[in-house]
């Protein structure tokens, strides 16, 4: 792997997670005037249009299998993931959702092993996973909330984590086809919007563009559409292409950390001692999981060099 591209992959993953960790502020503001489905549809519609402006080149798939994978990526990573996450928040606590969604890296490693013949999750990866989950639990379950199980909401959150893992594995496979990152992301958005149409017909949805006359709403929907959707999905897909599904997915552990820190800076919320301990544990878990993937990469390079010498 090219070292420069490897570095760019880490930077792209870190950037994506940083922006996604701050989107809760924009979503919270927009929920005063829009429904979750309206926010979801408008943000990806804006993102899709922005990607066409950024790269008006058509993407030509070589066979039906490639097109099916693009459709599956749009269904899993855009439509199902966000709809299930949003509905989970209406049934269970946000704390529960944030912790359950954080198990996505575990499912990603499992799917990578089962479907892409990657390495079986080892003790170091599992240790990092458990450490990060404990940290995220400390961040999420404050004294004021506590953990209250709600089977319907918690199951939806778990299903969302699994669909994001599936999305990561699918985009890794799509990355092998050599299509441009922007064109790839745009095609995924197309199918994501297409699969939203049934939900638009069933659930409450109003265009109501007059709401965007409020500069607060306009700024936040543009941030979600251009930044969190168009740009960050492109950088995330690039990271998956360069680093692989497992190494990229462990960055998800950092989302609650960024959320807490950004709330402190932007909303002037105080970080408790419990949250501070949670941040340390979460970052430690991320580093342990990353060291696992790096050591695995080193072993693979050694094997290849040994085979070449023989």
Automatic annotation (TrEMBL):
The chain crosses the membrane at residues 7-27, 33-55, 67-84, 90-113, 125-143, 187-206, 218-238, 250-267. The keyword Cell membrane applies. It is a multi-pass membrane protein. It comes from the Bacteria. Residues 8-140, 152-288 form the EamA domain. The keyword Lipid metabolism does not apply. Its main location: membrane. It is found in: Cell membrane. Gene3D superfamilies: 1.10.3730.20. InterPro entries: AA-Vitamin_Transporters (IPR050638), EamA_dom (IPR000620), EmrE-like (IPR037185). GO terms for cellular component: plasma membrane. Keywords: Cell membrane, Membrane, Transmembrane, Transmembrane helix. Belongs to the EamA transporter family. This is EamA domain-containing protein.
């Amino acid at each position: 792997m090219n070292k420069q591209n490897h570095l760019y992959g880490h930077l792209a993953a870190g950037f994506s997670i940083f922006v996604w960790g701050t989107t809760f502020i924009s979503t919270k503001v927009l929920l005063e005037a829009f429904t979750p489905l309206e926010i979801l549809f408008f943000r990806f519609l804006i993102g899709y249009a922005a990607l066409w402006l950024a790269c008006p080149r058509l993407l030509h798939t070589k066979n039906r299998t490639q097109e099916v994978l693009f459709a599956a990526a749009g269904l899993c990573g855009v439509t199902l993931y966000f709809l299930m996450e949003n509905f989970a928040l209406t049934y269970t606590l946000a704390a529960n959702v944030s912790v359950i969604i954080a198990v996505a890296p575990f499912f990603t490693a499992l799917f990578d092993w089962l479907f892409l013949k990657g390495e079986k999750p080892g003790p170091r990866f599992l240790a990092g996973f458990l450490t990060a989950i404990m940290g995220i639990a400390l961040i999420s379950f404050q004294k004021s909330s506590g953990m209250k199980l709600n089977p319907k909401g918690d199951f939806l959150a778990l299903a969302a984590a699994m669909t994001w893992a599936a999305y990561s594995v699918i985009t890794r496979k799509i990355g092998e086809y050599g299509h441009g990152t922007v064109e790839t992301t745009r095609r995924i958005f197309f199918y994501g919007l297409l699969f939203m149409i049934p939900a638009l017909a069933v659930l409450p949805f109003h265009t109501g563009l007059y709401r965007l006359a409020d500069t607060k709403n306009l700024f936040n929907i543009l941030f979600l559409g251009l930044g969190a959707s168009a740009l960050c999905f492109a950088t995330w897909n690039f990271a998956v292409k360069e680093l692989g599904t497992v190494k990229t997915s462990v960055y998800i552990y950092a989302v609650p950390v960024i959320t807490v820190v950004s709330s402190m800076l932007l909303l002037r919320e105080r970080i408790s001692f419990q949250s501070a301990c949670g941040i340390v544990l979460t970052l430690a878990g991320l580093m342990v999981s990353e060291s696992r993937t790096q050591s695995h990469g080193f072993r693979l390079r050694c094997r290849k060099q040994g085979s070449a010498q023989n």
